[in-house]
Amino acid sequence: MMTLTERTHNLSQRALATPSAGAAPVKDRVESVHSLTRELDALRRQHEKLQQAVFEAAQVQRRLCAPRELTWGEFEIAGEIFPVRHLSGDFFKVLELDSALGLAVGDIAGKGLTAGVWQTHLLGLIQRCARRHSNPADVVGEVNHELCLNSVEAPLTALFFARLDPHSNELVFCNAGLPTPLLLRQDNVVEQLETGGPMLGALQNAKFEAGNVRLDPGDMLIAYSDGVTECRNAQEEEFEVARLSAAAGAVAGASANRALFSTLGAVLDFADACPPGDDLTLLVIRRRLGIPVQPDTQRFFGSSSKAGFG
Predict the structure, then answer these.
(1) Contact 160, 223 (CB under 8 A)
(2) In the structure, how many helices (H) and strands (E) does the chain have?
(3) What is the pLDDT of residues 261-290, one digit of tens each?
(4) How many domains does the chain have?
(5) How many CA atoms lie within 13 A of 109 on its CB side?
(6) How confident is the model at residue 307 (pLDDT cuts 50, 70, 90)?
(7) Is the pLDDT of residue 94 over 60?
(8) Cα–Cα distance between 271 and 254 in angstroms, integer?
(9) In terms of residue numbers, what domain contains 256?
(10) Alpha-carbon distance values, 299 to 76, 103, 291 (Å)
């Protein structure tokens, strides 16, 4: 299928073609030019409609990845996606699981329309499995099984899924192929959450394991897609995990939202004039310092629409 640019070029060439001997009268040639102009205008309108449809799809995608910022008892959560195209292959989700929180960050192989279509399916699948199983390894395992059974070949997907218990402050997680999330402790120690299994959609009988950590006051967890650490500068250097850890550590005492945008700013400053080659996604979870406060689940999961839980 020809692109709009190619079709426009062909129309222009036809309109400017030199008439041969015995060509139609000037009146007929003028009408031919007018016809070509109308056809070109129609193509432009079609292109504008397509752009508008993609833009609207991107807005739906952003609403599906919600909430983007949340304060929940002792915890602050902030997430953001910077797509390299209108539609992203990355996603994150925060959802209610009884009295706990489910946290997901994913990266679907590919970009654009195909990844965008699969994202909607995956988010629904993750939410359904997360409400069926309390163990994140079982959630991830069932998502993988469903993808492998799909009659349409699913793209490989990296997924970090965790369950946060507000009573014990324990985070149980399973990391299936996503770059290792970082846990920055209040005392500046950095831990990596590696336990999990392979990427989803490749091996139907793949095994997954769950790990667990306790989030103490002042601790901050950062889950991210590979577009963050693989972002390159003009010297072809990658941002890498060490720079990510340093950038996050520099604002470890800040709010989750400020830490998120400061870290993303560090990535973009590093890239400078080089546009990112892949989607950039970050999800930050921070346990605040101060007096312990139990989450008001009715406020965030019941009457409040601000939270935007799925």
Answers:
(1) yes
(2) 8, 12
(3) 999 999 999 999 898 888 899 999 999 987
(4) 1
(5) 10
(6) very low
(7) yes
(8) 24
(9) 67-303
(10) 15, 19, 19
